Amino acid sequence: MVEYKMLNFKVHGNHQGSLVALEKGEDFPFEIKRVYYIWNTDGDVVRGKHAHRKLEQVIVCTSGSCDFILDNGKEREVVRLDNPAQGLHIKNNIWREFTNFSKDCVVMVLASEHYSEEDYIRDYDVFLKEVGV
């Protein structure tokens, strides 16, 4: 089984709408060092296609939906993101791809590290060697 965790965020809501507050040290298994978001992606595009040596991520689909394909080198699992009150926690050394974007999809990524090209494994065969498969 591919190791990942769905985080359920506390939703504050009333007749004015819903709010999720993500606070350092309260809602995450790591200190957030980088945040970015992705939108306006054609439905059949496949993004990601990499793993990280050190970095962890929590991924939130703040609008719409998409599918994450997670791979530990032995098994692949598809996780549907379609709830802005949930975050997908992906640790390091997990190959990730995402696709099947709805037209209104906005994906926010919260990362444990600053961007470093050296942290990326962009070749699947190299990934398999590094995870010992």
Overall spatial form:
globular
* Percent of residues in helices: under 10%
Radius of gyration over all CA atoms, rounded: 15 Å
> Strand-residue fraction?
over 45%
For the secondary structure, the number of strands is 12
Give a short account of the largest sheet: 5 strands, antiparallel
Order of helices and strands: EEEEEEEEEEEEH
Low-confidence stretches: none
In round numbers, the mean pLDDT is 95
Terminal Cα span: 15 Å
Strand order of the largest sheet: 1-9-6-11-4
Structural class: mainly beta
Summed up, the helix count is: 1
Give a written overview of the molecule.
- This protein is mainly beta and 133 residues long.
- The chain has 1 helix and 12 strands, in the order ββββββββββββα.
- The chain has one helix spanning 124-130; strands spanning 5-8, 11-14, 17-20, 34-39, 47-52, 57-63, 66-71, 76-81, 86-90, 95-99, 106-111, 120-121.
- The longest helix is centred in the C-terminal third of the chain and has 7 residues, at 124-130.
- The two termini are 15 Å apart.
- The model has no long low-confidence stretch (mean pLDDT 95).
